[in-house]
Amino acid sequence: MPDAAAIDEPTMPILAVAQGRALVRLNRPRQHNRLEPSDLAALEEILTRADADPSIRVLILTGTGKSFSSGFHIGALADRLAGKDIGAEDRDAFERTVDRLERLRVPTIAALNGSVYGGATDLALACDFRIGIEGTRLLMPAARLGIVYYGSGIRRYVTRLGVAAAKKLFLTAQPIDADEMLRIGYLDEIVPAESLMARAEALAATLAANAPLALAGLKRAINDTAAGSLDPAALAALRAHCAESIDHAEGVRAWTEKRTPVFVGR
User: Fold this and answer.
1) Average confidence (pLDDT) over 98-109
2) Please, which pLDDT band fits residue 229 given cuts at 50, 70 and 90?
3) Fold of 4-208
4) How far apart are the first and last CA of the chain?
């Protein structure tokens, strides 16, 4: 995996794949990894590849530099208000990209290498796990910008953090620290900065060792249940598919033989 300190020039998100794990690194450190429209397009391409590549079993999302991300480029909003010609702007691109990340087939880990602001708070919230470093802060400034947030983002805040936490973060537009992020369930863990990637890799290894079909089915069922959109027929089909899989048979054999299973994703 690439070393964050070795990547100095701002670019679109960088993808590295090794040992069944995809590492996606936001790479505009001088702008606190703000997300440009081109970054969203690149992220969509990366997510499509991750869904299509059976060798990828988990995805880690992190950033270069001192911040995880400052969210969508506010300058684009200012340009819109100023009436500047910004071409065929896709106003739903951010929401669509975050929703796409939430629906990704494989488990996802947000390794928050620093503070997280605006839309990036939802980008990380769309991941299945979030590990942050000491000193991390979170700020959702929608109310200070005169914005009513998009629906799926509000749903994620409410279903993952609860109504009270969602109201506090959205309506006060005040930052919270890492301890509060952990208390409300935004973070699963807080680690020293130097331990972040090692901890994310360890969690990725644990996830990648489990049966890919079961992971994908469980993730989808949990997300759909949280969203109030679970389809019993679709769940039954997922369960039947996994029950008939090679991996299910391997898992049962390995359990009885007291050995580590070797899953193939079929």
Assistant:
1) 97
2) very high
3) 2-enoyl-CoA Hydratase; Chain A, domain 1 (3.90.226)
4) 27
Question: Does 88 score more than 60 pLDDT?
Answer: no
DSSP code string of the chain = ---GGG--S--S-EEEEETTEEEEEE--GGGTT-B-HHHHHHHHHHHHHHHH-TT--EEEEEESSSEEE--B-HHHHHHHHTT----S--TTHHHHHHHHHHT-SS-EEEEE-SEEETHHHHHHHTSSEEEEETT-EEE--HHHHT-PPPHHHHHHHHHHH-HHHHHHHHHH---EEHHHHHHTTS-SEEE-GGGHHHHHHHHHHHHHTS-HHHHHHHHHHHHHHHHT---HHHHHHHHHHHHTSHHHHHHHHHHHHTS-------
Report how far residue 106's alpha carbon sits from residue 23's, in angstroms, rounded to the nearest whole number. Answer: 13
Percentage, residues of the chain above pLDDT 90? 85
Sorted by where each begins, the domain ranges of the chain are 4-208, 212-257
pLDDT at 8 over 70: no
More confident residue, 83 or 234: 234
